[in-house]
Write the structure tokens for this entry.
Amino acid sequence: MKRAFIEPVAVGGRLPDMPLFLDPERYVPVPLEDTYTAAFAAVPKRWQSVLESSDRAEHSCRISK
């Protein structure tokens, strides 16, 4: 039997800690907000601004030959 555990979230809200199941009986708690925040902090500032911008066309990538 497959099960899903749903945790409602809202845009701008904090991501919840969620279980990562190793098997049906064992899981590891995953701190999603802290993990994503740390990963985003490692993204170069230029790309952070692209991701945070409401006008992504202004930041489009150009490939030069």
About this structure: The chain has a mean pLDDT of 86.
